[in-house]
Input
Amino acid sequence: MRIFTITAYYSFRALFNWLEPTSYLVYRAFFPLAQMAFFALLGAYGGSQPLSFYLVGNAIGTATATAFGVSQAVANERQQGTLSYLLAAPAPRVPIFFGRAALHVADGMLNMVAALAIAVIAFGLRVPVEGIFGVICAMLVATLAICGLGLLLGALAYIVLDTAILANFAMFIILLLSGANVPLDELPGVVAAISQGIPLTRSVAAARLYAGGAPLDAGLGLLLGDLALGAVYGIAGFVVFNWLETRARREGRLEGV
Amino acid sequence: MTAALRLAAQSAWVDFQEVAVSGFLLFAAVWQPFFIGVTTMYMLRHRADFDPMYVIVGTALSGIWSTLLFAGSGAIGHERWMGTLELLAASPASFFVVIGGKLAGTTIFSLVSLVLAYGIGAVLFGYPMTIAEPGWFALSLLFAVVALWATGMFFAPLAILWRAVGRFLLGLEYPIFALSGFLFPVLLLPGWVLPISNVLPSYWAAVAMHGAASGDLDLGGVLRAWFFLLVTGGVLLLIASRLFDEVLTRARRAGTLALS
Output
């Protein structure tokens, strides 16, 4: 637990230049909120769905920004020259690996709350009181699922080398295929099937249900589905990381993971 | 003048080769416009007045803008990172011309967004694509590219002189898409932001290119858009040249070029 907490704290803190908080504000607040506003306005101009469809979808979609931080928290070890120390340490790998996502869950939630606040204040989104708890649950599940994806991307970045590009791909694929901007029934069959394997698809659908006033149990199945999917991605990331570590030890090149 | 052009051309060629294999800028010029174009096609195609060329032009501009935003704000920082900044500053060749050539190479590369956007409309969605005024469109594209290059030149010293501003610039992708009316009209935005749009070269680029592609602008309208496009771009270039001088002056005065 101690290793988990320390890892969570330092890996999060190391991502941003805390002497000047502009990095954090730009990447974790300004950029995702601008993205949400842009797609909401684009949707309003398209007019095929009500504005609330785009506001809720893209407020949940801001969770994609979390994938950048989580994946970099894993992959930056090599760039910062600390990978060999990490791999040589006797500390158990599970808290080290999953601890990297911990603070991003809270940060992602904060981001989505800000997105939702903008949707309510600037765009006039109305969420019925009975739906608020459900929307919060959807936000939490979305963040957890994206963190799982971020862990996988971080581990994969040791192979393909560029975390930012991987996370950007993930973000745009999710914005296109998760139903945040395009109704799933408009997508071609194969693509719509792929969207079922993408984190956020179910969280977005559940959030829309709750924002429409549905009771909590109406979207529970969807949320559990996304939670399971996020866990699969996270565990897959851990497996990839472990495989790379084993190979690096066997071949005697820790920096070459 | 000939020497400066030769220098700029060499700088552009070196940069073009570098950018063409840069994963990040390839993403900005190719993959991001691809996703934005496809998503926008789906979102706008139900409009009664839907014109696929509108999405194509907006997507292309978004790709050119993103590429120049990232390349421009990192242009001088990249030289520092590569360890070539001191050599550049000490060389008798104009620093402004070298970076200008470099961003020209990036600008030429960013035109791949236009080809890609056309492919999305014509091949992926199968829409018939027609440009109402091809001659005006070609000139609008040329002026737009020059003005957006000038914007990139403005960002280059800005990001070095004030690092916080440099980081803030990286967040300007979507706000400029919106303020410039790349993919939806700026009239959707609150009235108080319209004066901001009017001083952006990217806004006039969108007005000229959308207008020429759809045929919605008459000659007077196109000429007006070209005029403001070149004026706003020219003003930014003028400010940029002063800022480039300031970068070198500050660095030489403090003797901290690598940290300027």
Q: What stands out?
A: Residues 2-259 of chain B form one domain. Residues 154 and 240 of chain B are 5 Å apart (CA to CA). Chain B has one domain: 2-259. The interface with chain A takes residues 23-24, 27, 31-32, 35-36, 38-40, 42-47, 163-164, 167-168, 170-171, 173-175, 177-178, 183-185, 188-189 of chain B (CB under 8 Å).
